[in-house]
Task: structure prediction
Amino acid sequence: MRILRLSVEGLGYINATVLRLTRTAAWLLLVVMVVVILLQVVFRYGFNNALPWPEEAARSMMIWMMALIAPSAYRWGGFVSIDLLKDLLPARLSSLLNLILLLLAAAVLWILLNQAMAHFRSGFLFTATGLKIKLAWIYLAMSVCFGLMLSVNLELSLREVGRLIGRPEDFPQPVTDAALSSE
Result:
């Protein structure tokens, strides 16, 4: 049980640290995206001369921003879910159901990661017209997203195993940075 708890704490620390960095990068991308869009508005309506690259750049930053923030939302339970059945079940059955759902999600994430990696590799064949970069660098966002979500899924699955076979209070849900800073 101690090894499981240490594994969860270690993986939890790694996920929390990496996801803190990805959230910071996502916020920076949001700021840059707003600046790029405003730049395009000024050039289009102020100088009557639209730039060829801002729309594609903003779309690419939005894709990356979503890919960098989604694993944090997954870790904190921020995705839409239906908890009615889970809430009606006894604690052990609820935990078992949650573990089964996490394992199914892991299988789906593994398939998605493999598909995203194949898509990334094919992106080297094409160049983004406005940005003049290989599309692979935009497609890489999905591989990063699914890879990070798989890491989060592993942490959540190990926590659920710990709650199932050990004491639930030893394996709490991950807390948000806001919850940490308020303590």
Q: What stands out?
A: The CA atoms of residues 53 and 177 lie 35 Å apart. Residues 2-46 form the longest helix (45 residues). The mean pLDDT is 91.
